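Quick one:
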Amino acid sequence: MYDVAVVGAGFAGVVAARDLSVEGYSVVVCEARDRVGGRTYSGEAFGRSVEFGGAYAHWTQPYVWRELKRYGIGLSAPMEIEKVHWLADGVVHSGTAAEYAGIGGPLIARYMADARARFPRPFDLAAADTGAIEEETLGDRLDSLNLSAYDRDVLDGMLAPLVCSYSRQGVAQFLLWAATTFGDWGAFLETAGAWPIEGGTARLLDAITGESKAELRLSTPVAAIEDDGAGITVTTRENDRIRARHAVVALPLNTLNAVTVTPPVTGPVRTMIEQKHPMTTSKLWVRVKGEIDPFAACAPVGKHPVNAARTESRHDGDTLLACFCSDASVINGDDRTAVQHALRAFVPGVEVVDTAWHDWVADPFSRGTWAHHRPGNLTRAVPRMREAHGRIRFAGGDIAAIGIGGIDGAIETGTEAARDIARALSDCG
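Output:
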């Protein structure tokens, strides 16, 4: 009988396991993969380590920043972008970063204009008046602005790195994100996707697991989790049974349908799990020949296979680009010719040497990338999922309160789940 069973060893799971185990509780962690990290994944490509999943952190993100300071880990400065290329109204335009911001900034400001009004206290969704927007999609908001074809494509391209489907993603999540940085979307993008962790996510994960006293069982996918009122039984796919007093379930939202939870969740939470979130994007690393001038590029969803690209670093005389594709099925990340053709629309003559990526959509232990919730789920289902389900606590970046979809949110939920379970165990003696 363990005190706690943790299912899933992404950032939420490993932080919960560490916090509980260092307090003296017996903890076992079951992870389906042969590694920790979940949808963060420091892998090898081009003869070096690259981040195939979540990679970025920021000093304004309280949970991840506390972890970085705890282990003496810093952030790497992003490469300064000198030029921007954007596809709009069927033509690729180019300009300085300042010129691009001058065109797109007012459009983004219109799109996010009510962010602070809708979420005056982003840390407290109960204080938000979201009745009018929780059924509004990203596409509804875009249509309501009545923009010219050019302006619409500019705005679409600025949003595209975080968009898979304008008809299935709710606008409330964008407004919440913007509200966390005082309504400034550019500031949010910096916090969410600019500053890599020094040494990669693997360095931080190694530090956390190195301090943890939990028993870690890799390559151990879980089939069922049952709360019988007296304790928890975790059943693996190999039919091993693990008993614990409490459980933290830190699995991606889109994989929860593959795990039987007893008693079953109900209402909006059940609906959200059955619907899944719609994000089927991909992150593609591209090595191009030579040290090319730093640039960023963007294109509207559905109008180009690569919706965002930017220079990330230099490597052995070449340049590494990080690209984001709104629909992973549109372009094969292994097809160098197709990737080169797509990038040459922005930078003529660019030569692709190699590519690398991980298909998170086909991955059975993720079934998608970070979560962007469907209309109605952000303020109705997600908060309920963070509540205790008997002796079970759910965790993960997909259901975070503020840092939703990111590393900070995952750590936030893991920390809070561990705190609440520690209180429950302490109350029981």
